[in-house]
Amino acid sequence: MFRIPTGPLVLGLAGLLPFLWGALTAMVPALGDWALLTLGGRFTAPFVQLSYGSVILSFMSGVLWGFATRQDRWLPYALSVIPALWAFFMVGGGPTTAAINLVAGFVGLLLLDWQFAKAGWAPPWWMKLRALLTGIVVISFLPLIL
User: Fold this and answer.
1) Three-class secondary structure of residue 39 per DSSP
2) Sign of the torsion angle spanned by Cα atoms 56, 62, 63, 65
3) Which of 62, 65, 111, 140 has its Cα between 20 and 30 A from that of 82?
4) Considering Cα of 99, then 100, then 103, then 104, what sign does the dihedral take?
5) Mutual orientation of helices 47-68 and 17-27 as an angle, nearest 10°?
6) How many CA atoms lie within 13 A of 8 on its CB side?
7) Cα dihedral sign for 137, 143, 144, 146?
8) What is the pLDDT of residue 9?
């Protein structure tokens, strides 16, 4: 199997910190209260996960767009905008609904990642990294959903 380069792995794992922080503030009420008083509501669950999740889905659209630039076809470009549009249209309706929709968006993104990797548009190690990160992101939303 292909090894994930250190840079993308470390930065990808660091990018999970807001998701994990949000899950912790949801699961540990005392931590959530402290964060609310000290850092403000934007940095507590559900707000940190929902806003950051929307940002990351949009960011990943940009990554897919970058892969699409290596092709001379319109399909990869069209596919690459789906995660950002999903985040824009589907995050709303309350925290539980928004969290469910973001989880669906990240699972859908993983399917797009797989398509890009299968077509040879992404690096060989891409799916190994994306499966790891997506799994942790989805788990981090469970405290908002359950």
Assistant:
1) coil
2) positive
3) 140
4) negative
5) 160
6) 14
7) positive
8) 98
Confidence of residue 1 (pLDDT cuts 50, 70, 90): low
Average pLDDT over residues 15-21: 98
pLDDT band at residue 93 under the 50/70/90 scheme? confident
The answer to whether the predicted template modeling score (pTM) of the entire model surpasses 0.70 is yes
Taking the C-alpha atoms of residue 133 and residue 110, their distance in angstroms, rounded to an integer, is: 10
Helix axes 95-118, 82-90, angle to 10 degrees: 170
Q: Is 61 helix (H, G, I), strand (E, B) or coil?
A: helix
Helix, strand, coil percentages in the chain from 3-state DSSP, rounded to 5? 80, 0, 20
Report the half-sphere exposure of 17 (CA within 13 A, side-chain side): 5
Measured between alpha carbons, how far is 69 from 122 in angstroms, rounded to an integer? Answer: 11
Distance CA 85, CA 79 (A): 11
| Residues whose CB falls within 8 Å of the CB of residue 52, separated by 6 or more in sequence, listed in order | 18, 19, 22
Distance separating alpha carbons of residues 79 and 60, to the nearest angstrom: 11
Length of the chain: 146
